[in-house]
What does this fold into?
Amino acid sequence: KPYSASLLNISAMSFGSLSQNAILALSKGAELGKFAHNTGEGGLSRYHREGGGDLIWQIGTGYFGCRNQDGSFCDSLFREEASHPQVKMIELKLSQGAKPGKGGVLPGGKVTAEIARIRGIPQGIDSLSPNRHPEITSIDQLLDMVLRVREVTGKPVGIKTAIGGWQFMNLLTEAVARRGIADAPDFIAVDG
It folds into this structure.
């Protein structure tokens, strides 16, 4: 069933950047307010689900929570995790808007056994988010990934991008016009 609640949501903040208590409180707040909570790119933790709120699962450039050991996107793990009924939408985060030209870093000292398990990374080692998706190098590949993720889950899939100019949106709309509206993201979040 498509997500039909308010477009209001709690902005993306990852478990690991925030504590389990903070994530649980945000999720409970989303449930009380009847809006969604964006997981941030750090994966889908039990604390996101325990609060009872609707979730927008953000998939960042590190594919945390849905990655193979080599860091590539894993369809089967993603399907399993995205099947939780609280996950209402998927958001592909295209870049690190607050850190132009760099990826995100969670220092190794904060990568506990639990965070390592949720993200699918080694414990105690810096968790690096590349500055872009390794599997997306063109607008057509972006639309292919939107379709892939939608087909795996059957849920709405959108993109989040930092925009500093008009070129990306023009290229995106031209590609959708060429390929057809069925290939378009279900929503676009703009950071910038």
